[in-house]
Amino acid sequence: MVKHIVLWTLTEEAKKNIDAVADDLQKRFKALLGVVDGLTGIEVGRNYNGGTFDLILYCEFTTKEAQDKYQNHPAHVAIKQIVHSHVCGRDCVDYEI
């Protein structure tokens, strides 16, 4: 199993509507379940603990290959464009268990 964690810092404009942004992205990413082969879990959460990052994306994949296919899947690419309109910083961690 592969876990993919992305941390986002929102723009000042997006922070004004953080709940709506988080809810919208949660809905869009959850819709990828059953669409992207090998994606077994996905969620978006709001960081309530302070710090640099505002939102977190957590994904689980069956394999590294499934994660690679997710990155270029048209449904994911469409969501990435929306994310980029709200985000001014990003970090990512991937690991296999």
Automatic annotation (TrEMBL):
Question: Where in the sequence is the signal peptide annotated?
Answer: none
Matching PROSITE patterns: S_R_A_B_BARREL (PS51502)
SMART domains, alphabetically? Dabb
What are the Stress-response A/B barrel domain coordinates in residue numbering? 2-95
InterPro entries recorded for this chain? Dabb, Dimeric_a/b-barrel
Q: Which Gene3D superfamilies match?
A: 3.30.70.100
Question: Pfam families attached here?
Answer: Dabb
Protein name per its UniProtKB record? Dabb family protein
